[in-house]
């Protein structure tokens, strides 16, 4: 079997493992693909701590894309992870968040992979921003709405459980309250977005 074929098999194995929540897949991902990222960041005015942070964020981008369900790898996983890490490192350098600053990084991959990585980073940042706004909207919601929505959507509690917890006379009343709370949350969320 050629090296490229075995790389593709390993990449698919890692992606499937991440999708299934297998910690061994994540360990293999770090073992195989972290060293080139570490080298790239250290060679471009970074530290090993910064490389760890960048790679962790890169893994989160990959995790989000895999769990979104429509992730198709158009290059080797190593190339994708390197491109995302490079993009994140460049952003950190241009924001001046690195201990050191350097204006360029040697090219590694073609522009197609760079665009794919850029899209993945942009999507990840948008999701993070929306989650932060949703957290803020939820915090401003107050009780009992905050707990009702948290119990239903995060803890997956049934309406019967919520009805019992809050002392509603029946589940229809609890559903009505949940609906009103959800409408208030939407109002807070879209107010914070605009």
Automatic annotation (TrEMBL):
InterPro entries: RNA_pol_sigma-70-like (IPR039425), RNA_pol_sigma-70_dom (IPR014284), RNA_pol_sigma70_r2 (IPR007627), RNA_pol_sigma_r2 (IPR013325), RNA_pol_sigma_r3/r4-like (IPR013324), WH-like_DNA-bd_sf (IPR036388)
GO biological process: DNA-templated transcription initiation
Keyword Cell membrane among record annotations: no
Keywords: DNA-binding, Sigma factor, Transcription, Transcription regulation
Family: Belongs to the sigma-70 factor family. ECF subfamily.
Source organism phylogeny: Bacteria, Pseudomonadati, Bacteroidota, Sphingobacteriia, Sphingobacteriales
Name of this protein: RNA polymerase sigma factor, sigma-70 family
Residues of the signal peptide: none
One family name in Pfam for this protein: Sigma70_r2
Coiled coil segments of this chain: none
Single GO MF descriptor: sigma factor activity
């Amino acid at each position: 079997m050629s090296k490229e074929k075995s790389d593709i098999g390993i990449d698919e194995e890692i992606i499937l493992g991440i999708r299934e929540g297998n910690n061994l897949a994540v360990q293999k991902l770090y073992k195989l693909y972290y060293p080139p990222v570490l080298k790239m960041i250290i060679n471009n005015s970074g530290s090993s701590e910064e490389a760890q942070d960048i790679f962790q964020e890169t893994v989160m981008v990959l995790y989000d894309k895999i769990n979104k369900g429509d992730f198709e790898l158009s290059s080797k996983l190593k190339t994708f992870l390197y491109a995302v890490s490079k993009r994140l490192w460049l952003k950190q350098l241009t924001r001046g968040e690195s201990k050191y600053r350097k204006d360029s990084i040697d090219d590694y991959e073609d522009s197609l992979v760079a665009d794919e990585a850029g899209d993945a980073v942009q999507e990840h940042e948008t999701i993070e921003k929306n989650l932060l706004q949703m957290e803020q909207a939820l915090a401003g919601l107050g009780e009992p709405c905050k707990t009702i929505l948290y119990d239903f959507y995060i803890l997956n509690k049934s309406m019967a459980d919520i009805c019992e917890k809050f002392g509603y006379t029946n589940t229809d009343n609890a559903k009505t309250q949940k609906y009103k709370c959800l409408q208030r949350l939407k109002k807070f969320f879209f107010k914070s977005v605009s």
